[in-house]
Design goal:
It contains four helices and no strands. By secondary structure, it is mainly alpha-helical. The protein folds into two domains: 78 residues; 39 residues, no CATH class. Helix 1 runs antiparallel to helix 2. The radius of gyration is 20 Å and the shape is elongated.
Length: 119
Amino acid sequence: MRKRLLDERTRLEGARAGLLDEDLQESEESATGELASTDQHADIASETVERETGNSILEQVEGELTDVDRALVRLDDGSYGFCEACGKPIGEARLEAVPTARFCVEDQAAQERGVRPAG
């Protein structure tokens, strides 16, 4: 599982670097005034939507990186594979599907319903 998590971390770091490079390129293009056209307002609106979408994706990637790092810490301290809410083992099938899982299926469902898991 450690190798799988480390591979995922590498993939996510690459995705983050790519998103940051795109953002830097777009910022440089905006600063040099490449949007000088007759329909500048539409171009600015389109650029704003693209930037917000990119930022949203970047936040998601960074959140996934945090999840991977937390899972690696749990591997090191021996708590990996146990639900953080109830302490019961997380099923092997769940860990295979979601290696960063922190909760068993029941407590994850409760959290998603807005009910705070016990523990």
